[in-house]
Amino acid sequence: MAGKGMLLVALCYLLATVASVDRNNFKTCEQSSFCRRLRSLEPQTGEFEVLAQSLQQFKQYITLTLAHQRTKHEYTLKLACVKGGSSFHMQVDEKQPLSVRYRVQDALVQEPQYGPTKVESTSGTLIMVACGEGDGVKAAIQVAPFKVDFFQQGKLVVTANGKGMMRFEHLRHKPEPKADPDQAETEQKEGGEQPEPADEPPADDPGAWEENFKSHHDSKPKGPEGLALDFTFPQAKVLFGVPEHADTFALRHTATKGTDPYRLYNLDVFEYELNNGMALYGSVPVVYGHGETSTTGVFWLNAAETWVDVFSTNRDTDVVSSLVNLVSWNSQTEPPAANFISESGIMDVFVLLGPGPTDAFRQFTDLTGKGPLPQLYAIAYHQCRWNYNDERDVESVSAKFDEHDIPMDTMWLDIEYTDGKRYFTWDHHKFPHPVEMIRNLTELGRHLTIIIDPHIKRDGGYFFHNECTDRGLYVKNKDGGDYEGWCWPGAASYVDFFNPDARRHYADQYLLENFREQSETVGIWNDMNEPSVFNGPEVTMLKDNVHHGGLEHRDVHNLYGHMQLIATFDGLLRRGQGRLRPFILTRSHFAGSQRYAAVWTGDNMAEWGHLQASIKMCLSLSVAGISFCGADVGGFFGNPDGELFSRWYQTGAFQPFFRSHAHIDTKRREPWLFPEDVKLVIRDAIRKRYRLLPFWYTMFYEHERSGLPIMRPLLAHYPSDVNAFAIDHQFLLGDQLLVAPVLDQKQQRSRDVYFPVRADGQGDWWYDWDTHRKHTATGVEAIPCDSYKVPVFQRGGTILPTKERIRRASTLMRHDPYTLTVALDREGRAKGTLYIDDEQSYEYRRGHYLYLEFEFRDGVLSSRKIDTTATYQTDTWLERVIVVGLGKTPAAATLYTDASGAATGRLELE
Q1: Would you say residue 8 lies in a domain?
Q2: Which pairing describes strands 523-526 and 584-586: parallel, antiparallel, or unpaired?
Q3: What's the mean pLDDT in 558-579?
Q4: Nearest-angstrom CA–CA distance, 642 and 676
Q5: Alpha-carbon span 153 to 137, nearest angstrom
Q6: Which of 643, 676, 699, 726 could serve as a FRET partner for 902 with CA atoms 20 to 30 Å apart?
Q7: pTM of the full structure
Q8: Is 603 a catalytic residue?
Q9: Do both 700 and 819 map to the same domain?
């Protein structure tokens, strides 16, 4: 996070939150009126029915009319097969709403592409729909009560409204108050006044037509407009997803009185608590259900405040939080389910039918987009704190990394670099020569990243504020004036990123002709973009604020930070004239944010529990499309001791985004400020990251191609191993590395590692990455750990590329040679890939790259180009090959290459 507030409100905010999060500042379900009204904890008979005669068939979708049985209010159901045949798109909206209900824009990578959608049969009770491109992909629409069963290869895998919890509050005129309350009471007793239908808010609900929270008032101009729909996963044992929460990877059972559902509402939460479903900085409304033979998902495309109740098969919450999870799943319990409850919008649902985990993950990123390949430096090590004081401080820290022989690629500046919290400016007392400072870092092979937040200081002497005011580019309050809140600058207004003119003007500020004191290599950090408003309800913006086109903020709240990313990415792309790949880090995020930025897990604490949470949170984000994830190494708040700090570095070195960051009130914690033994452990961890950069870079490229997560739960590749379902203290990188970092102060001598079981009942061979010792058994094994040890294992059957010459920055390693570690499986075989390009530009999208496959078989290591038309001239070469798992030591090795000696060839062992 960002800078020290000079105003009283900001100081009070810091003091109130620095001890721990104040839960009283944030709503519970009971305090959120729509959640209180629409939440159901027990199955019931649904009150919606299909009017079968309303069926209309089109080539790529069908429509039906739904009616509420009591109110007779009608809704339109649209059902379509997504192109590819393994997903359905279902939408429900009012047939004739009083006003248009909001449909989420800008989250999907493109408008959904549909394939053939056919009605196979109809009856008075059931309508069968099949996907023309799918293999046994069907939907069965039950007429009354309404529900939809989704089938994959003849197997029922998802049911919508199976618990009958569907709700849809139609827009209506506000009722006139009764002139005579006594008369109304008499009419009700005599039967003259009928009870409200199920979708009508109770007459005494104080939050239906307007709502108060603490001192804040929400005028609710459209009245109640909430909706809910439950989804059951008949083949699943465990549910996971719906980030962002500081909780276990496997979702806990929440459908109990006194327990809140998981909340999706982007909020600025200092020192967040662990092991609960409290809302945090981002919201990705996708949930997956996984069992031994099936993985499916539901993507609830809604950007309003949303609560998700989980009906879990295993209600022993201690099971999923234990260090080694060996679970006896009860097959006799009800299948798990999730109930989505949103404040406004429409029901816009994608049902992802798998059938495997990686199939479901790919189906989600096909919709929301893949993370683009970053520049190589962005996946190296970043050094940050709030704040580096001045130019001399920046230069000194950079020099100290060289002095202590610790690689580092990027220095970061928090908000104190600005002129009085005015973004796109510099404090010239502290930073009199910013361009020269940036150039000095660049000449060393390093980069600079600076923070720019969405709140704009209300100051008549600030050019950007004046421009936004004059052009009408700010978010408005309900009365049509520019909304004013409080954040780090004091009085601030907020750019309306839903306004195309505002996005363009904001993006223009990044151009070198406007923001001159930067360079095209500078990265950008978008923080406080939930948006954070210190004096707002729940530290955020009023829901009845108004965006461009008359959008209420309540409809788009969770999209606000995402829209800032779109503008920032556009600005950086044009700043680099379309050549350089932008680097952006964001705190707020939504589905699809992976197309623009990396994400970190916010204002964590220097505690072992928060170190453990970094894995759980990044696993949940990764399966929700956001692979470029990390946590503040060491914890943002507090002062870690040497053991916690070094163990956190060892964990962060194996997560996609690797940055150390700290609060302004913490002690300085650059590695050399710790005792020598701690510094050397940290140095070793960072250098391990740099050795593996070719592997990381290849994974990021393959993520852009496939959409599969980089950091993966064990169930991704061991889907039938029930003991692996809930494990969130170790993880996979691709399918090549198993990472089980030391996460507990008690694990000083050994660390229990779980080696998973394949579908055939056997285990893979795993080779210790440090010693090459082979592990062939499945189950839990205690791995000895000294202070340097990070238990990491390469899977037999894989080939891993590394670079062994560690330099001060990754940019200086471009032409260094590669080493291949060939880890053999039971059959004596292995495969692997390596991706090479210029590491910074978009030339790879024009065919300027090398994508190689290596294969070891029958004693021969061969290489070939995967994309034969792609070309890239490189000065690097293959320096060394390490083969582990051989039955005997080879007597000789012979190398054969093609005419160029560059991309293809083979190595024969004798």
Answers
A1: no
A2: parallel
A3: 98
A4: 10
A5: 6
A6: 699
A7: 0.95
A8: yes
A9: no
The answer for residues whose C-beta is within 8 angstroms of residue 741's C-beta and 6 or more apart is 615, 647, 650, 651, 654, 730, 790, 791
* 100 is a domain residue: yes
The tally of domains found in the chain comes to: 4
CATH number at residue 437: 3.20.20.80
pLDDT at 716 over 60: yes
Neighbours of 665 (CB within 10 A): 12
Instruction: Calculate the dihedral angle through the C-alpha atoms of 411, 413, 414, 415, rounding to the nearest 10 degrees.
Output: -170
Same domain, 97 and 219: yes
Query: What is the mean predicted confidence (pLDDT) over 267-276?
Result: 95
Do 582 and 681 belong together in one domain? no
For residue 90, what are the β-bridge partners?
A: 79, 349
Is the bond into 704 cis (omega within 30 degrees of 0)?
no
What span, in angstroms and rounded, lies between the C-alpha atoms of 28 and 679?
A: 44
CA atoms of 15 and 9, how far apart (whole Å): 10
Q: Measure the CA–CA gap between 422 and 463, rounded to whole angstroms.
A: 9
Using CA atoms, how far residue 259 sits from 17, 29, 160, in Å, is 23, 9, 23
- pLDDT > 70 fraction of the chain, expressed in percent and rounded: 92
* Whether residue 826 sits in one domain with residue 704: no
Residue type at position 553 = H
Q: Is residue 706 part of a domain?
A: yes
pLDDT in tens, 523-550: 999 999 999 999 999 999 999 999 999 9
More confident residue, 897 or 288: 288
**C-alpha closest to that of 554 among 200, 97, 225:** 225
Residue 362, token pair as written in the block: 């790919």
Of the residues 603, 632, 728, 764, which is catalytic?
A: 603
Q: Any bridge partners for residue 190, and if so which?
A: none
> What CA–CA distance (Å, rounded) separates 486 from 7?
9
Catalytic residue among 527, 544, 555, 728: 527
> CA-to-CA distance for 765 and 486, rounded, in angstroms?
57
CB 346 within 8 A of CB 92: yes
Per-residue pLDDT tens over the stretch 613-631: 999 999 999 999 999 999 9
Q: Are residues 849 and 901 in the same domain?
A: yes
- Domain final residue pick, 563, 593, 623: 593
Give me the long-range contacts of 216-223 (CB less than 8 A, separation at least 24): 216/536, 216/537, 216/542, 218/537, 218/542, 218/543, 218/544, 218/554, 219/478, 219/544, 220/543, 220/544, 221/478, 221/544, 221/552, 222/98, 222/99, 222/171, 222/344, 222/552, 223/171, 223/172, 223/174
Three-state secondary structure string covering 143-171 = CCCCEEEEEECCEEEEEECCCCCCEECCC
Same domain, 572 and 606: no
Q: 265 near 281, Cβ under 8 Å?
A: no
Distances (CA, A) of 690 to 315, 378, 403, 468, 735: 42, 12, 18, 43, 20
DSSP string, 60-128: S-EEEEEEETTT--EEEEEEEEBTTSSEEEEEEEESS-SSPPP---SSSSSSPPB--EEEEEE-SSEEE
Together in a domain, 436 and 533: no
* Residues sharing a CB contact under 8 Å with residue 302, sequence separation 6 or more, in sequence order: 104, 285, 340, 342, 345, 346, 347, 348
Angle between helices 693-706 and 676-691 (to 10 degrees): 50
**Domain assignment of residue 763, given as a range:** 729-907
> What pLDDT, in 10s, does the model give residues 352-400?
999 999 999 999 999 999 999 999 999 999 999 999 999 999 999 999 9
3-state SS of 815-852 is: CCCEEEEEECCCCCCEEEEEEECCCCECHHHHCCCEEE
Which of 559, 593, 627 lies at the terminal end of a domain, its last residue? Answer: 593
CA 272 to chain centre: 17
Q: Is 409 a catalytic residue?
A: no
> Sign of the C-alpha dihedral, residues 150, 709, 558, 215?
positive
Rounded Cα distance between 895 and 908, Å, is 6
Outline where 660-759 has alpha helix (H). 676-691, 693-706
Same domain, 114 and 56: yes
